[in-house]
């Protein structure tokens, strides 16, 4: 198993990771310091370049854990390759060549991954087999996916769309889409991918996301195909855009999946997310729009792993990532009715008012009238989008789901 990995970021070998007795050490490279400067947060809010904080083993470990999936998915991925599920570096040695964001992790001393990257075309039957296998466990010899590391618990695979077909990514190539398996027809949340596609449709209509999503059938396997906002597809090789999620930015170790929810704790929180934005010189308006949208559609799974920040190649710019992994939950029979992160000290979604949303924005330092205006304009934009969205284009979304969103939007309106 890997005991040392080189970290590549935006075409620069940024550092080297080593593991000893469970401790993860990160040594930033001279090339990284020369390109971005000591203290740059190009990699992470948590890990300023070439500083004691940016190399602290606990911080490095928490951040890297955030690149890995959770629960049974992580265990299966590790076991498939004979790796201890607790061996973070070992898992990333196999799966770290395509992660969330722009980091590429390769064996120490390996060449620039851009020089080795390649694609392996697959047909739709093979995609169906990958999706089936994503919900179970294969073996190292038969594993079919792209060996991509993506956070979360839902069965999924990452592939590249290339020349009108799908391809596995290999040796440092970048995937362009995430394909998630539908839940079983017997599940009380069987419409999850349908409401995700519909929610992303609404979010696109009001300018909250650039992500495209559609429901597709691969043989008998039903799935959602979602474009990656951290990839730029062009005629040449796909470019990576670096990002980190809120849990990573705050140093929250999500090897315990419950830690991504606030649940009465001080972290994670929206005020902390706003602080990451303002520390990076960005405004918080888009975050308040996203929080308002979250409440309006009944998305009770908007936890710290489902909020991210885009970090640009210059190492200076930062902005809130486009909305992703958003769904309607409130209409289901198993909904807890609790938000993943509190709004103005409340997590019962039914109790959240427009004033609460504006109060949340004010707690970040937004001017009161500005916060009220952002909330009101967002609610109106959602209402307008609901009036024109093609519901026939989302046949898997029930009338009850749409009605729940409409009721919530009316409650938040003037």
UniProtKB/TrEMBL annotation:
Keywords: Kinase, Transferase. InterPro entries: HipA-like_C, HipA_N1, HipA_Ser/Thr_kinase. GO terms for molecular function: protein serine/threonine kinase activity. It comes from the Bacteria. Residues 5-105 form the HipA N-terminal subdomain domain. Gene3D superfamilies: 1.10.1070.20. Its EC number is 2.7.11.1. The keyword tRNA-binding does not apply. It is an enzyme of class 2 (transferase). Residues 148-385 form the HipA-like C-terminal domain. Belongs to the HipA Ser/Thr kinase family. PANTHER family: SERINE/THREONINE-PROTEIN KINASE TOXIN HIPA, SERINE_THREONINE-PROTEIN KINASE TOXIN HIPA. This is Serine/threonine-protein kinase HipA. It comes from Cellulomonas humilata.
